[in-house]
Design goal:
mainly beta, 2 helices
C-alpha cells in the first residue's frame, strides 16, 4: 500500500450498512487495485466445530475482491459491483484473533473485471484464497477523467 492510500468512511463496524454490519469488519486500506479489510473473530463468526465459518470467509473475500475493482479517488463517488462468479479454496482454520483479507484486481475492461484474494490470520497463516469475476453496476461506469 502506498503512503497516500485512501480508506473509505467505513472505518468501524457501526458505519457499515446491512449484512456488512452483521459481519463486523473494518476497512484497513483501499486504493486503486487493492482493498484490505480486517475482522476480529467473535463467537458468532464460528461454526459448530468452533472455527470461523466458511461463509464468513467467503463473504469477506467477496467484499475485498469487489472493492479492489471499484475504488474511486474522488470523495462522494462510489462504484459498486455485482459478483458474477466466485471460487473459494480453504487452506486453514482459526478460532479467534484478527484475520486480514486482501483483494487485488488482476484484469478487466470497462465493465467486467477479475480479482483474487487471500485471507490470513494474525500469525500470517493462509486460511483461504479466492478468485472472482465482477461487473460494475449501472451508474458505476468510469466518470470522465477518472481512471478505472
Amino acid at each position: 500500500m502506498s503512503e497516500q492510500q485512501q480508506v473509505t468512511s467505513f472505518s468501524s463496524a457501526n458505519d457499515l450498512p446491512g449484512f456488512h454490519r452483521v459481519l463486523g469488519y473494518r476497512q484497513a486500506a483501499w486504493e486503486e487495485g487493492v482493498a484490505v479489510i480486517e475482522l476480529t473473530v467473535e463467537p458468532h463468526h464460528l461454526n459448530l466445530a468452533g472455527v470461523i465459518h466458511g461463509g464468513v470467509i467467503t463473504s469477506l473475500l467477496d467484499i475485498a475482491m469487489a472493492e479492489a475493482g471499484t475504488y474511486c479517488p474522488f470523495a462522494g463517488r462510489m462504484r459498486k459491483a455485482i459478483t458474477l462468479s466466485l471460487t473459494t479454496t480453504f487452506t486453514g482454520q482459526c478460532s479467534g484473533g484478527l484475520i486480514r483479507v486482501t483483494g487485488t484486481r488482476r484484469a478487466g475492461g470497462s465493465r467486467i473485471f477479475n480479482s483474487s484474494g487471500e485471507v490470513r490470520d494474525q500469525e500470517g497463516q493462509l486460511l483461504a484464497i479466492g478468485e472472482g469475476t465482477f461487473r460494475l453496476r449501472s451508474g458505476s461506469e468510469k466518470p470522465e477523467g477518472v481512471p478505472l
